[in-house]
Amino acid sequence: MPFDFGFVVRNLPVFLDGLFVTIQLSALAFVLSLLWGLVVVGLRRSDSAPVRNLAAGYIQAVRNTPVLVQMYFIFFGSGMAGYPLSGFVAGLLALTLQNGGYVAEIYRAGIDSVSRRQTEAGLALGMLRRQAFFIVTLPQALRRVVAPISNQGVTIIKDTALVSTISVAEMTQAGRLLADRTAAVYEVFFTLALLYLLVVSIFSGTMRLIERRVRVLA
Amino acid sequence: MFDVVFRSWPLLLAATGETVLLSVASGLLATLLGILLALGQLFAARALRYLVEVWLYVMRGVPLLVLLFAMYYALPYTGIDLSPRVGGILVLSTYFSAFMAEIFRSAVLAVPKGQWDAARGIGFHGWRLMREVIVPQALRLASASYVNTMIMLVKGTSLVSIIGLWELTLAGRQIVERTLASFQVFGAVALIYFVLCYGLSLAGRYLEKRFSYVH
Amino acid sequence: MSIESGRAAIELRGVSKRFGSVQVLNRVDLDVHRGKAVVLIGPSGSGKTTLLRCMNFLEEFEEGEIRIDGEPLGYSDDGTRRRRPEREIARQRAALGMVFQSFNLFPHMTVLANVTVGPVRIKGLPRSEAEAVARELLDRVGLGHKLDAYPGQLSGGQQQRVAIARALAMKPKAMLFDEVTSALDPELVGEVLAVMRQLAESGMTMVIVTHEMAFARDAADQVVFMSGGSIVEAGPPDQLFHAPQTERLQAFLRHFREGYRL
Ligand SMILES: Nc1ncnc2c1ncn2[C@@H]1O[C@H](COP(=O)(O)OP(=O)(O)O)[C@@H](O)[C@H]1O
Ligand SMILES: [Mg+2]
């Protein structure tokens, strides 16, 4: 069975419609995860022990359960609770909750990797703890975590495929419907894989550029 | 409110068994494949190395779900007679072996250069050098990320439910379809995954302590 | 010799500090008078760094008090040893410049930003004003041409001079130096000591921990010898270096002369 390029070209609009949703969901989930992770790491370093433990428990909970089950929990659960969320919103929530937990751990490792002497230098100048954290520690930590954050972003992009199971017409879903309809299995999945690779490559390439820009000489 | 869960417990337990089976089989296979790929990346001739790099790049850039779908849809056309379960295990292990390979490779590279030199200095070379000196140290360096990847793999097995393989997540969906108790059932399913994965990380931590050398 | 005003700029009275069960400082009394340079010497582990860190309240201390221009440092005025609110401690710290052995410049900021961040973010000075001050200070330490460089692009000696400028930019009442040349390659030590000497001549109040005995002899108004967490001997450099009174200081100096310095 020869590979039918004509098929791919003819059906490109179908893929691109799906791709648009995939990119939208990825971008939103990525940005929200970065922000939510910041909140979680803030709670994780809170002065209050119960808050700290709660944040630690949250991180363990999301890291040790599949994002797919979280999606089902939110999607079907919200329906049962009488506030049905759209597949897109439920997926976005699950992706953010899960990846925000990972991102929080990445931030934490970055923050811990900044020497305590840096904080002390800030305090010695007359900074408050909060100022030393936001002016001295956090900016250095963020510069160090670009690479792992980029990996997490790739995970997010790939995991957006899962919302196809809660009826979001993103790229994987579009491809699947096409495969069901046309039986052009090789063409569909080859194109899908290629498009994901393209998105992932552009994303991680951009992150590498950013990393090079913000890198701090030791 | 939770009687649904209690009534479905035997079913959930059986499904957990299936998830564990999938995890163990794919985990073992992924580890083996990962080692092979890492060796290819580290020591193979240039052309082969290049091929391995491309393969890993593709595997890390394409969603697991797309790979599962590709297997599921393409299998009937290939004429290969493979049960969906075996197909699922093959895709899972292929996908996760790419991440394993990276862990093993960087662990070997992280063994200090002085160790290679010292070992060569006292006459080790080839396989014996790897087995006696490098691998034991690399294993220790890799252990934490290895366990993390194993946890990812256990979580990843939930995706095979989408291509109709019966395991914990699919069992959960089926029970929810009958009972509509989505919070309770998916909550219970999540809890079971949590026990599996958290148990894995505890075991990993124990082994790490056990095998770490005193400095 | 100038006439000393009634109160010392920094007064330590009975300062004691423990790390767990180890008594690191043992009832230390010290007066640092305005415009004077006091050099702390002593064997490694004798508590010099800890004492300096107490003077900036980077370490708490269990007993005694430290007064900066008469105001008790870190703990409240009412004799309860209650820790002051964070804001007050920060204000008190801002009044003392500190320079560390390991420079501790902020690596993600340019030289200029390192020197202006304190005045702008802590004191609320307008940026233009802070930059003018920073330029002048960096000129003074010989780095007026490195404003846009990052710390990682500078030699150790250059970094340490920026660190001095950063501390000076806060217009401190006194400067604390902790072995600021110990991490430098030998050929870079001189440029940092020259800046410190110049600072001492300009009348800055300074407390300097150093192993540079020649520098101590030239630049110090007073030399203090610490051992085992206590001040064992103190006096003008001539007296301490040429007529040491105690067995321990004699041994310390002998040990030093047998080494490569002095
Ligand atoms: N953070 C700390 N925790 C425990 N002990 C410390 C700490 N910092 C310093 N010490 C101990 O206090 C003593 C004095 O140290 P330090 O003030 O650094 O001496 P110096 O600067 O004169 O070499 C040493 O015995 C040192 O081991
Ligand atoms: Mg010291």
From TrEMBL, chain A:
Residues 19-207 form the ABC transmembrane type-1 domain. Keywords: Amino-acid transport, Cell membrane, Membrane, Transmembrane, Transmembrane helix, Transport. It holds the Pfam family BPD_transp_1. It is found in: Cell inner membrane; Cell membrane. The chain crosses the membrane at residues 20-43, 72-95, 188-210. GO terms for molecular function: transmembrane transporter activity. It is a multi-pass membrane protein. Signal peptide: none annotated. GO terms for biological process: amino acid transport. One of its GO terms (cellular component) is ATP-binding cassette (ABC) transporter complex. Belongs to the binding-protein-dependent transport system permease family. HisMQ subfamily. Part of the binding-protein-dependent transport system for glutamine; probably responsible for the translocation of the substrate across the membrane. NCBIfam families: HEQRo_perm_3TM. This is Amino acid ABC transporter permease. It comes from Enterovirga aerilata.
UniProtKB/TrEMBL annotation, chain B:
It is found in: Cell inner membrane; Cell membrane. SUPFAM superfamilies: MetI-like. Its main location: membrane. It comes from the Bacteria. Keywords: Amino-acid transport, Cell membrane, Membrane, Transmembrane, Transmembrane helix, Transport. GO terms for cellular component: ATP-binding cassette (ABC) transporter complex. GO terms for molecular function: transmembrane transporter activity. InterPro entries: AA_ABC_transptr_permease_3TM, ArtM/GltK/GlnP/TcyL/YhdX-like, MetI-like, MetI-like_sf. The keyword Glycoprotein does not apply. The chain crosses the membrane at residues 20-42, 54-74, 86-104, 146-166, 186-207. One of its GO terms (biological process) is amino acid transport. It is a multi-pass membrane protein. Residues 16-204 form the ABC transmembrane type-1 domain. Gene3D superfamilies: MetI-like. Belongs to the binding-protein-dependent transport system permease family. HisMQ subfamily. This is Amino acid ABC transporter permease. It comes from Enterovirga aerilata.
From TrEMBL, chain C:
It holds the Pfam family ABC_tran. Residues 10-253 form the ABC transporter domain. The keyword Amino-acid biosynthesis does not apply. It is found in: Cell membrane. GO terms for molecular function: ABC-type amino acid transporter activity; ATP binding; ATP hydrolysis activity. Its main location: membrane. Keywords: ATP-binding, Cell membrane, Membrane, Nucleotide-binding, Transport. Gene3D superfamilies: P-loop containing nucleotide triphosphate hydrolases (3.40.50.300). SMART domains: AAA. SUPFAM superfamilies: P-loop containing nucleoside triphosphate hydrolases. It is a peripheral membrane protein. One of its GO terms (cellular component) is plasma membrane. PANTHER family: AMINO ACID IMPORT ATP-BINDING PROTEIN, L-CYSTINE IMPORT ATP-BINDING PROTEIN TCYN. Belongs to the ABC transporter superfamily. This is Amino acid ABC transporter ATP-binding protein. It comes from Enterovirga aerilata.
